[in-house]
Write a structure and sequence with these properties.
The protein has a single domain, classed as Metal Binding Protein, Guanine Nucleotide Exchange Factor, Chain A (Beta Complex), CATH 2.170.150. 21% of the residues lie in helices and 26% in strands. A six-stranded antiparallel sheet has the order 3-4-8-7-6-5. Strands 2-1-9 form a three-stranded antiparallel sheet, with no helix packed on it. About 7% of the residues have low confidence.
Length: 154
């Protein structure tokens, strides 16, 4: 082994050492199972971290009391009481329910954003921004196709 091979091998090992480990989720499905249970757009958004077009989700205009659940695993994610009209064209919330979501850095689009996903199945929900209303100052800007709304029962 020459010096160049040794240096390249060491560099490769250091990259492996700092690469994040894949997160294990409570609810898992094979890629084929996800494809079978989701529409093409739902799959693109929830499993491939895509984004639906603004102003296309009927949930953007949902105003009833209730809870928004994850389409992938039915985990309750957001109370309708925390939803507000951000004017962005996507359902927006100022806070998730306790122990409902996780975040990770999203380095796409030449910037670092905060991606939000379901903590139970890992489905991509959207992003969190620092331009929301009080009391949190956060805007959870979500893809409606990642959500299922369940109205409150009377």
């Amino acid at each position: 082994m020459n010096r160049r091979e040794l240096m390249l091998g060491g560099a490769a090992l250091s990259l492996i050492a700092v690469a994040p480990a894949a997160q294990a989720f409570e609810v898992t499905h094979s890629d084929a199972e996800w494809r079978a249970m989701l529409s093409d757009l739902e799959y693109k958004v929830m499993r491939k971290e895509g984004t639906e077009r603004a102003f296309t989700s009927p949930l953007n205009d949902e105003k009833r009391e209730g809870v928004f659940h994850c389409r992938g695993c039915d985990l309750a994610l957001y109370d309708a009481a925390t939803k507000y009209d951000s004017g962005t064209g996507w359902p927006s919330f100022w806070q998730a329910l306790p122990n409902a979501v996780d975040t990770k850095p999203d380095r796409k689009l030449f910037t670092v954003r905060t991606e939000v996903h379901c903590r139970r199945c890992g489905s991509h929900l959207g992003h969190i921004f620092d331009d929301g209303p009080q009391p949190t100052g956060k805007r959870h800007c979500l893809n409606g196709v990642s959500l299922v709304f369940k109205p409150a029962t009377a």
